[in-house]
Design a protein that fits this description.
By secondary structure, the chain is an alpha/beta fold. It has 20 helices and 32 strands.
Amino acid sequence: MVITELIHTVSDTNYFPRELSWLSFNGRVLQEAADERNPLIERLRFLGIYSNNMDEFFRVRVADVKRRILLKKYHADEQEDAEQLLHDIQHIVLKLGERFNKIYDDLQQELRKHNIELIDNFKLTDAQAQWARSFYRSEIQRHLSPIILSAEEVKLAKHLEDNATYLMVEMTGANKAEYAIVQVPTGVMSRFVELPLHLNKSKKKGRYRRQIILLDDIIVHCLKDLFNGFFEFCEIQAFSLKLTRDAEYNISDTLDQSLIDKMSKGIKQRLKSEPVRMVYDAHMPEHMLKMLKKLLGYSSYDSLIPGGKYRNFKDFIGFPNIGHPSLEFPPMPVLKSPEFERHTTSFEAIRTSDILLYYPYHSFGYFTEWVRQASFDPKVTSIKMTMYRVAKNSRVIHSLLDAVRNGKQVTVVVELKARFDEENNINWARRMTEAGIEVIFGLQTLKIHSKLCLITRQEKGKTQKFAHIGTGNFNEKTARIYTDMSLFTCHSEICDEVDQVFEFIQYSYKPFQFNHLIVSPTWSRPKLSALIERETSFATSGRKAEIILKINNLVDNQIVDLLYKASMAGVKIRIMVRGMCSLIPGIKGLSDNIHVTSVLDRFLEHARVYVFNNGGETDLYISSADWMTRNLDQRVEVGVPIYDAAIKQQILTTLDIQWHDNVKARIIDKDQSNHYVKRGNKRSIRSQQEIYDYFAQLQQSTQAGT
């Protein structure tokens, strides 16, 4: 789908609107749902990913556009037409929604071919209907507490949770119509209920068809049971809806509150924040829709999006596979790290040489094991770590708690403003503080997004530091589905600079100097600008000049302008971007030398890598930072140079593999059209599989050589 075909106007500037670029990215997710090369159940799960992404888009990006519209009369910006942008967004979202519904219908047909069927309450047999009613009474009913809308004092917007699934119920036939809102309890039970096989009369080739019904439909089927005895009615019907709210929240500056308490209040405030989107069943009668709009206080700037019968497709991320294993991606067993495996302890391994792990191809267990060993190692004196997003049952944090009990000095920098993970981080912060860990909440105006761990040991009477600098969070769950890189090193100067970052977070007013690390917010922009300008100078003088970037997002006009300048000077620039890209490649005389692709496959591309040719000496960095204004100026981010020649070559090889992907790579052109890279007569290269095979081969060759 070509985004520019769906909007009324495209910016005539040299920057593609980031919101529209984001929608182009989610269009690529829809492509994965439609791609018949993907297993069937995985295609359904991509629909769930699309839905989850769209929720975040409205909570963050659309909410921001809406605020810009409302503030425009106070801060007029002639260069931006926020109203037109919002109109374009709404237009594209509707078109994408139509495509979503078509894909979903197609996938249901495909499921039936595999003897799996999604059915609704109208297709239940008598025996199934009886079972559903029994299941409702024993498992569901206790979780339902309807909101009655006839009460004038009901402030509906204050009672509906962000991104929960609701049913709007209408009861008619008595004195007057009664209305209620019922929340589908997906937070306490699975949304997908498999009906007993023996109750199914439908057979295919002599086999009973496996059938799944959604929780929503069981509730609708039993609506009379929910309201009988409380209301008189002859007819009852229900239609689905979902509300999306502004993700921003205000934190008071009251001095007598702890930061944790402030954050807790801020999260609760989201419940009351402005709604920015309501998605509803397109079959909802007009009078019910009008009532909802009035109760919610919707304005002309809010998005009202009609859709299918079911809302909150994000739950489909967890759609169960009740069919053949081939309906999911085949298992990709995690690879062993020869460097860690050949040593008794993690510290021995890191002392021998720098080590690179590339998740999810390598096991995240090497990191958790390193921290576990540190928790009881008598030579370890201290552990320092940043925490942005961690798992709800984090082995890493449990090891830190063990370390405190063993007398280690443990310091954890917790980012309480990790969007949508605040509650989890608050809970961990409380638990760690109670256990005796020194918890630091960082800088009030900056998010701590770096992925650092520093462990200090006393070895032969000397202090030895070991550091981890990575691109991804210390999260066991995401390490299985995100591609990320981790560097383990005991390079003394790098470790000292990592220690300086922790000191900077605590004492930002002190002067610091970083000769190796690229550290935001103060040092990243001038360093990256200098690296780009150096390549520009090489090109201007007739020498080879090249920049290779692998990033999630590229949205910063100043950096984009520098890349344009480099391109005009003759620098060859290759960019692999996952999501937003405001840079427009292929503009004659401006960006002829810039080529951009995007890979979207079974794993979420998350690693950030910067490569500068440097006259043939090749400077290579891995980093936690995207090239966005927020990452360069408003967060604490850390990039680390790769000095080990073998590791540098490994990363360069993976980048080359990804650049030559001709199965899951899309070309990001001036229209962000999302056309797949053409394979031609070349062999198929699916980069994520090829990278896995590459590291598997390295593992085998290393083992054979030992």
